[in-house]
Amino acid sequence: MGAGGWNWNDAWIFVSAVIAERLERDRALHAALPVTGAALADVLASADFLHHSVPTREELETSVRRLAGAGLIIAEDDLIRIAPPGEQLWRTRPFSGLSSAVMTLQAQLNRLTEPGESDWSLDEQAYNAAVREYSLRLADGR
Q1: CB-CB contact of 85 with 72 (8 Å)
Q2: pLDDT at 80
Q3: Distance CA 38, CA 75 (A)
Q4: What is the C-alpha to C-alpha distance for residues 142 and 136, in angstroms, rounded to an integer?
Q5: CA-closest candidate to residue 41, choices 26, 58, 28, 54
Q6: Are strands 38-39 and 79-82 parallel, antiparallel or unpaired?
Q7: Average pLDDT, the chain
């Protein structure tokens, strides 16, 4: 019997965070820098890549709170890292490719765990700064 309670946006943000963190990890390792996590602009870029839209501040904040509260991600200021249980979830998911990864992950989440609640918040200024950074990257072709 599944736990239930997860929605599509939660899975979308989780998969986006996984992609963003892995890209950041690769960049850091190639530059011999410490791995710190994915910036919000990186998560927004991954979300746009997956769904051709950028999550609203409310969508992002709600899903990050639920995922962090369930122990799947770690959110500190404007950095997101995948926690060990989130890594385990990602590694053990049925492989379906990126085109259906969000739906696959939503089903996995609903079978395995309940959403949690953390006190992480994303103020409008931080969200707008991340959107601006992502927009500048798009304009530069990065």
Answers
A1: yes
A2: 97
A3: 10
A4: 9
A5: 54
A6: antiparallel
A7: 92
Distance of CA 108 to the CA centre of its chain: 16
Cβ atoms within 10 Å, residue 111: 12
pLDDT of residue 1 exceeding 50, the answer is no
Indicate the pTM of the whole model.
0.92
How far, in Å, CA of 121 to CA of 102, rounded? 23
Name the H helices within 53-122: 57-69, 84-92, 101-112
Residue-wise DSSP of 34-68: ----EEHHHHHHHHHHHHSSPPPHHHHHHHHHHHH
* 1-7: average pLDDT: 75
Query: Under DSSP, is residue 93 helix (H, G, I), strand (E, B) or coil?
Result: coil
Radius of gyration of the chain (CA): 14
Count the alpha carbons within 13 Å of 39 in the hemisphere toward its beta carbon: 13
